[in-house]
Amino acid sequence: MQLQERQKAFLNAVKDRFGATRKTKVNQAFGVSNSAKVIEGGIQLGVPNLDNFGEDVDGFLLLCLIRFPPEDEVYFAIRVAGDVPVLRARLDEMRRLGQEAKAKGKTAADPEDFALESDETVATVIAYREFNNLVPTYLAAEDGRLYFRNKQFWDSLRFDLSAVGPGVRVDEVAVAIYPPSASARRSTLAREFVGYLGKMVGRARVHEIDAFPDERVVGESMRRMPSTIPIADIRKHIGKLGGHYVDGLVERYHEALNYLPAKHFAILKGLSGTGKTQLALQYARAVHGLAAGEPDPLLYVCPVRPEWTDPTGLTGYHDVLTNRYVVPPFLEAVLVATAYRNSPVFVVLDEMNLARVEHYFSDILSAMESGHSIQLHSSSVPLEGSTGGEIRAEIAFPPNLYLTGTINVDETTNPVSDKVLDRAVTIDMSIVDLPGFLDGLKTREPAVAAAVDACAAMLAAVNGAMTPHAQGFGYRVAEEVIRYHTFATGTGRPSSAVLDDMLVQKVLVKLRGSHAQRPMLDRLAALLADLPRSAETIARMEAELDEMGSFRNAR
Fold first, then answer.
1. Fewer beta carbons within 10 Å, N or C terminal of the chain?
2. Percent of the chain having pLDDT more than 70?
3. Could you tell me which residues come within 8 angstroms of residue 191 by beta carbon, excluding any fewer than 6 positions away?
4. What CA dihedral angle connects 498, 500, 503 and 505, to 10 degrees?
5. How far apart are CA 427 and CA 249, in angstroms?
6. 137: which residues sit within 8 A by CB, 6+ positions away?
7. Are 208 and 176 in contact (CB under 8 A)?
8. Is 269 in contact with 277 (CB distance < 8 Å)?
9. Distances from the Cα of 330 to the Cαs of 337, 342, 398, in angstroms?
10. CA 315, 316, 319 angle in degrees (round to 5)?
11. Which phi and psi (to 5°) does residue 450 adopt?
12. pLDDT tens-digit profile of 325-371?
């Protein structure tokens, strides 16, 4: 989108926002020498042409532009409606002062070049300049009002503004940032500037508007709901992304997320490393039509922390020190889903049972079920958000938000209550197909083919012995064994020794149990008899079982 197109798009959006008519005086300050800049005590907005500010003018719009690195452009429009008579009176006063200045001969030199009269200040003399149709305009930080003067720019507003007053009250400010960002992640400087405007004129008067098309961020393929996409296409796309899932898993996950029109919540449980998080990520990328490596601005991963005991980890909080509302990734996803109603936004709550789910997730569950809004804060005035924009006191749960939680069941996690399970579809991902997964890895990456040939049979056999005792491993462990083997044998080490090392270091480390697991140890002892380190590890655990009645490899 070219510069002139952006300026025109913002102009049209502002006119629509404020209902500009033929009687509205609209000025654009977008030029290189006629754009906004921050000065001491406020902002120099630009130099609008106000020569034809007649009696019939019912409103004033000044469109401004300021740039921040790396590439952000902040477009903002100052609207004056109620104080139009004050503005008109100020312009008339400037004409009168200009005529007086001309009569006194104070129109050509800088004010420092001649002696001041007893009742004059530098600001007063500056105000006396001969009136010109191009009027430098300023927004003062002191009171958030507009000030106008004759020729010559100021470098500072740090003086008595009454000499160039009265100030004109600003009714509203419309803001749009380019490039548009679905994730609302903008440069710190751009966000600070929007907050600066809010502090000057009042945050309730500053509104962000959608002025620019966002195809560069949210393409056409991202504007389709999952339920409208053939499941065969989704499954094929997931396969291209490296996903390998059996037992109709892709189909069941797709159905779990889409069988209700306004609630999309699934929980993926199972062994660590079976691809729970990867399935959620690959499904979102398949729905959005993205290839591996492409950024997805409508996908959010929220790692759950064990200390979460309230909703603030998801819905944020008001930081009184900075006077901002801290926006965590989950709330950012809600805001984005609210802004992009025609696009599915995906959230992955990774390892959601590291904390008590009902403690931090109850507000979200309630909003999903009841249709009530999520309460964020109690202020009647929207608060400035840490990612830019305004955060209202409450926000409705968007129907285009797709939630997936992943859970492991071990000693580090908390049980998930019925309250949570009743509101989600829970899918077990404990079944793995190691031979099929490794064949696919071999096809995608020929460089690891030799390692797959050397390790696949042993990995499948060991996993087959461990799985009936709920101690099997998933795709992540298998793939890391293959990559370790490829790297280590490349240094000249024997293949069998490398496989032996990785079985001890990666696969057998979590073995534990009692006499009920004796058949597992016996089976592993037979399989690993020719691998000395692995055989020694199994023998040690068998001895521990005989002596203590239980065993645990990683102590």
1. C
2. 90
3. 386, 387, 388
4. -70
5. 8
6. 44, 45, 46, 47, 48, 62, 146, 147, 148
7. yes
8. no
9. 11, 19, 12
10. 160
11. -65, -40
12. 999 999 999 988 887 888 999 999 999 999 999 999 999 999 998 88
Joined together, the tokens standing for residue 300 give 């959010």
Q: Distance (Å, rounded) from C-alpha 79 to C-alpha 18?
A: 8
pLDDT bracket for residue 389 (50, 70, 90) = low
**How do beta strands 37-39 and 42-46 pair?**
antiparallel
Note the CATH number of domain 220-428.
3.40.50.300
Pairing of strands 265-269, 425-428: parallel
Closest among 256, 243, 232 to 433, alpha carbons compared: 243
How would you classify the pairing of strands 206-208 and 317-319? unpaired
The residue whose two tokens read 């006119």 is 15
What is the C-alpha to C-alpha distance for residues 316 and 333, in angstroms, rounded to an integer?
12
| Domain range annotation of the chain | 3-208, 220-428, 434-552
Q: Where are the alpha helices (DSSP H) in 403-494?
A: 418-421, 434-444, 449-466, 475-490
Q: Which residue has the tokens 């000044």?
A: 62
Which two three-digit tokens encode residue 144?
Answer: 């958030």
Q: How many CB atoms lie within 10 A of CB 260?
A: 12
Please name which of 384, 352, 386, 363 lies closest in space to residue 312, comparing C-alpha atoms: 363
Tell me, what's the pLDDT at 116?
47
Between CA 199 and CA 141 the distance in angstroms is 8
Token reading at 324? 């901002």
How many residues does this entry show for the chain?
A: 555
Question: What's residue 210's pLDDT?
Answer: 79
Virtual CA dihedral for 459, 463, 464, 467, nearest 10 degrees? -170
The answer to whether 355 touches 309, Cβ cutoff 8 Å, is yes
How many angstroms separate the Cα of 12 from the Cα of each of 30, 65, 215, 290? 15, 15, 18, 32
Query: What pLDDT digit, counting tens, does each position of 197-239 carry?
Result: 988 999 889 988 878 866 546 777 888 999 999 999 999 999 9
226 prior amide bond cis, ω within 30: no
In what helix (H) or strand (E) does residue 24 lie, and over which residues does it extend?
strand 24-29
pLDDT at 185 over 70: no
Sign of the Cα torsion 253, 426, 242, 245 reads negative
Closest by CA to 88, choosing from 121, 47, 60, is 60
If one counts every other C-beta atom within 10 angstroms of the C-beta of residue 173, the result is 23
Q: How far apart are CA 481 and CA 451, in angstroms?
A: 9
Q: How far apart are CA 503 and CA 486, in angstroms?
A: 15
Q: 361 to each of 221, 263, 445, how far by Cα in Å?
A: 31, 15, 41
Residue pair 149/87 in contact by the 8 Å Cβ criterion: no
Distance of CA 219 to the CA centre of its chain: 17
Q: What is the crossing angle of helices 249-258 and 276-288, to 10°?
A: 70
* Calpha distance 320→140 (Å, rounded): 25
What is the C-alpha to C-alpha distance for residues 333 and 338, in angstroms, rounded to an integer?
Answer: 8
